[in-house]
Design brief:
Layout: H1 3-14, H2 18-31, H3 33-43, E1 50-54, H4 62-66, E2 73-77, H5 81-90, H6 92-96, E3 100-103, E4 117-123, H7 132-142, E5 143-154, H8 156-161, H9 174-183, E6 186-201, E7 204-217
Parallel strand pairs: 1-2, 1-4, 2-3, 4-5
Antiparallel strand pairs: 5-7, 6-7
The structure holds S-adenosylmethionine (SAM).
Length: 218
């Protein structure tokens, strides 16, 4: 793949913008669908939960989180103005009833009271955080004691083999992520590992796997 294209793609995955951002936002719904499903399986959202997602992209999967339960409240935070407007368009009915609200904000400035949230999750975002301790500490601040945090990433070997990640993605192993979570005040309860179908890039086959870190605020 052409280097300029990969650089642009990396920038769009980091913070979608403009026409290319709209397309990338849509493509992510397909390429990351299984990661979303795996994460929701662990999240086990219950009636009356308040759930916060960081970096929801265009918010395509929110309907799956809510199911038909109008007692669940969902807040999405994303620093991309484009993703906020796309997610708003896709989730209008839920916004009108007050069940869903979006915040155009970065993960290190969450607009919630301390200890007010039951569950926070984020998928494919930590690669872009310059100093993830800052964001993780902010997530810990807003969670209730015992509140749950789900951090979903592609595994280290997968990330190392995807060409776009050479342009500014931070790649983590499990030890580093576990240490970061501990330092921010979380106990890691388990790391769920999932296999996904292989990807093909320029004639190379890449094994794809996903990690879901299931952590608790202590
Ligand atoms: C690669 S996309 C992933 C979207 C979706 N979670 C998925 O897995 O399909 C990353 C998303 O996180 C957002 N994002 C990245 N870093 C962020 C930060 N520090 N604060 C808020 N949003 C962030 C981007 O704007 C983008 O919408």
């Amino acid at each position: 793949m052409d280097k300029d294209f990969l650089q642009q793609l990396a920038q769009q995955l980091r913070k979608p913008d403009g026409d290319m951002g709209k397309k990338v936002g849509g493509n992510m719904n397909a390429s990351n669908a299984l990661m979303n499903t795996f994460t929701l399986d662990e999240l086990k959202v219950q009636s009356n939960d308040t759930v916060v997602e960081i970096g929801m992209g265009n918010g395509f999967f929110i309907k799956d989180i809510l199911g038909n339960d109008d007692s669940i409240t969902y807040f999405g935070c994303d620093y991309s103005e484009l993703m906020i407007s796309e997610a708003t368009a896709l989730n209008k009915p839920f916004i009108e009833t007050g069940q869903v609200k979006f915040f155009n904000t970065a993960a290190d400035q969450l607009p919630f009271q301390a200890h007010s949230v039951d569950k926070v999750f984020t998928i494919n975002t930590i690669y872009f955080w310059a100093n993830p301790s800052v964001e993780l500490t902010e997530i810990h601040r807003v969670l209730k004691p015992g509140g749950q945090f789900f951090l979903t990433v592609r595994s280290k070997s997968t990330m190392e083999n995807i060409p776009v990640t050479q342009f500014g993605f931070k790649i983590y192993d499990q030890t580093l992520l576990t240490d970061l979570l501990h330092t921010a005040g979380f106990k890691v309860k388990q790391v769920v590992e999932k296999e996904e179908p292989d990807l093909e890039f320029s004639g190379n086959t890449i094994k794809v796997s996903t990690w879901i870190f299931c952590a608790e605020a202590i």
